UniProtKB/TrEMBL annotation:
Keyword terms: Flavoprotein, FMN, Oxidoreductase
UniProt-recorded name of the protein: NAD(P)H-dependent oxidoreductase
InterPro entries: CE1759_FMN_reduct, Flavoprotein-like_sf, FMN_Rdtase-like_dom, NAD(P)H-dep_FMN_reductase
Domain NADPH-dependent FMN reductase-like span(s) in chain numbering: 6-155
SUPFAM superfamilies listed in its UniProt record: Flavoproteins
TM segment ranges: none
Pfam families according to UniProt: FMN_red
Length: 209
């Protein structure tokens, strides 16, 4: 049995990066949920910072380099995706958006996606709902109900009674992603070729007419 493929995309810019840390925590939590099954899981974390030049070149030339092509193939072949961006000016980062701009518009159709973000203040948490969720809805991905936002004060805090602490949100969102990955239907069969209407009419005419 082939392993399930889980890919986490981190658009963090600094080293170390809270965005990468959140991506790692979400990926590990999802892996733990999926470990309850007998099917193995392969986890890959992509750092967009390392691909920034390749992404810019692709946007200008239309052709991905070898490293970017490998990253695109990993994302498009994934059974589940975790997408994490830092929030700048109340939205996802330019690097984050640029990477998903170079994907084929249909590449993520039907793919379970967990969206997450980091920022300096909780005031930017709604960027997940007005920016990231619409982006992946447009790409026809299946976005899990729980989005995870981690502000600076969330790391190590107890959170509140409505959302819980960061660890609880990570666990809940990862569980939702794991459930979708388990239940994801097999790829639909290739569409049959369309026969032009004129040919269909010709096939109905009696011979000799």
């Amino acid at each position: 049995m082939s392993p399930l493929s889980l890919v986490a995309v981190s658009a963090g810019l600094s080293t170390p990066s809270s965005t990468r840390l959140l991506a790692d925590r979400l990926a590990e939590a999802a892996r733990e949920h999926l470990a309850e099954d007998t099917r193995p899981v392969q986890v890959t974390v992509l750092e967009l910072r390392d691909l920034a030049t390749d992404i810019a070149s692709n946007l200008v030339t239309g052709f991905p380099g070898a490293r970017l092509r490998a990253a695109i193939e990993a994302v498009t072949a994934a059974d589940g995706l975790i997408a994490v961006s830092p929030i700048f000016s109340a939205s996802y980062s330019g690097l984050f958006k640029s990477f998903f701009d170079v994907l084929d518009p249909d590449a993520l159709a039907g793919t379970p996606v967990l969206i997450a973000a980091t920022g300096g203040t909780a005031r930017h948490s709604l960027a997940l709902e007005h920016a990231l969720r619409p982006l992946f809805a447009y790409l026809r991905a299946i976005v899990v109900p729980t989005a995870v936002y981690a502000a600076s004060e969330d790391w190590g805090s107890a959170g509140d009674t409505r959302t819980g602490d960061l660890a609880a949100r990570v666990t809940r969102a990862a569980g939702e992603l794991a459930a979708l990955m388990r239940d994801r239907p097999a790829a639909a069969p290739a569409a049959e070729s369309v026969v032009p209407f004129e040919e269909q009419l010709a096939a109905l005419r009696p011979e000799g007419n």
